[in-house]
Amino acid sequence: MNLNLMATLCPTGYGIFGYHVFKGLYDRGINLSLFMMGEDAVPWVDQAAVLAARRNTRFFDPQAPCLKIWQQFALADRIGRGKFVAFPIFELDPLSKVDVHHMNSTDQILVASHWAKEVCQRSGVTVPIFVVPLGVDPAVFYPTAPPPQGGPCIFLNVGKWEMRKGHDLLLATFNATFSEADHVELWMMPEHYPHSPQEKSLWRDLALNSKLGRAGKIKILDPVESHVALAQIMRQVTCGVFPSRAEGFNLGLLEMMACGKPVIATNYSAHTEFCNAKNCLLIEGSRLTPANDGRWFDGTRGNWLAWDDAQTEQLFRHLRHVYEHRASSENINHAGLETARRLTWERTVTAIINTALV
C-alpha cells in the first residue's frame, strides 16, 4: 500500500503525534512518501526510516491516499489526487468559518476525541468524521517503584507557557493552597517554542517571583532530549496537574497516567475522551467564555472553559487532597494505568489504517 504523508516531526505535540503515526505506518510495511512540514525533527527519530520515506517523495504515487496531520485552517494543499484525509488538532468551540471551509475541502476528517467530532458537526463540517484517539508508548511510559517517602510532594505540569494551558490559574492557586512551610514543590516544563525571550521572561517572573517561587518551591525545568528522559522525570513526581481551559488532546496528561501517577485535570474538551472520575481528580465546569489571551486568541475564534471561583476551589481541594494523602496507596493511579494500556500509538495507527486507508 502506498501513502503520501504530510506531517511535521518537530518537538511539539504535532511533531510527536506525527512521528508516532509515521513510524507505526512505516513499521507495518506501508510504502510512505513523507512530505515533511518544516525541517526540524525530534532528536530520537528513526533517521533511516525518515530518510527513506523522504526519498520516496521524488516518485510519489499520485493516486495514493494523502494523510495530512496539520492545523484545521491550513488544509488547502495536498499531495496527489487520491483520497485526501486530514487529521487536525484543535481546542476551541465552535470552529471558525475558515476552519470549516478547509475541513470540508477534504474527503475525510479524523479527530482525536468525540468532543472534537461534536464540535465539527455543530460547526458545519459535512465530510465523514472518525474519532481516532492519540496514544502513549508503553515501552517508555510505565510505572516504577514510587519515590522514597520523606521527600516533597511534587506536582508536575508539562506544556508550553500559555493561558489556554491554565498556567496563570495553576500558579495563582498553588500559591494560595500552600505555605512556605509545606513540604511541596511545583515543577513546570514549558516548551521553548514558539515564545519570544520577552514572553518567556514574563511567565518565568510570574512563577519565580511569586510567594512560593521566592521560597524555592516552584521549579522551571529545561526541556529534555527524549521521551525516555521525560518519563524518568514523571516517575519522580507525586502528581500531574493540568487545569487547561481547552485541549486538543494533552499527551502529557495521558503519559502521566501511564506512569501510574494521580492526575488533576479539567473535565472539558479533549480531556473528556480519556479522563473520568476513576482515573482523574476532575475540575468540573460548564460555562464557556470567548477564548482571549492577547496572544494566540483574540476572542473571535471560539470559546473555551470559563474559570470561576468554583473551579479555583476544586483545584485547591484536589491539590490539598494529593498533598495530605501522598504517602498512601491511592497515589498509584490504577485506573489511569488501565486507560493508558488501552490508548497506545499502536491502536492509533490501526484506527488510521482502518478508517483512512480503505
Provide a descriptive summary of the structure in words.
It is a single chain. With 358 residues, the chain is α/β, with parallel strands linked by helices. It has 2 domains: 2-135 and 344-356, Rossmann fold, CATH 3.40.50; 153-342, Glycogen Phosphorylase B (Rossmann fold, 3-Layer(aba) Sandwich), CATH 3.40.50.2000. It contains 12 helices and 14 strands. It has helices at residues 13-27, 47-55, 97-103, 114-123, 167-177, 197-208, 211-214, 227-234, 251-258, 309-324, 334-342, 345-356, and strands at 2-9, 31-41, 66-68, 84-86, 108-111, 129-131, 153-158, 184-189, 218-220, 239-242, 263-266, 281-283, 288-292, 298-305. It has a 6-stranded parallel β-sheet. The protein has a 6-stranded parallel β-sheet with strand order 9-8-7-10-11-12, with helices on both faces. The mean pLDDT is 95.
Architecture (CATH level 2) name of the largest domain:
3-Layer(aba) Sandwich
What is the CA–CA distance across the termini?
10 Å
- How many strands appear in the DSSP assignment? 14
Low-pLDDT windows of residues? none
What overall form do the CA principal axes indicate? globular
Rg calculated over all Cα atoms: 20 Å
CATH top level class name of the largest domain: Alpha Beta
Specify the biggest β-sheet. Answer: 6 strands, parallel
Instruction: Please state the average pLDDT score.
Output: 95
The secondary structure category is alpha/beta
User: Please, what is the CATH homologous superfamily of the largest domain?
Assistant: Glycogen Phosphorylase B
Helix content: 25-40%
Number of helices: 12
* Element-level helix/strand string: EHEHEEHEHEEHEHHEHEHEEEEHHH
CATH topology of the largest domain: Rossmann fold
Sheet with the most strands: spatial strand order: 2-1-3-4-5-6
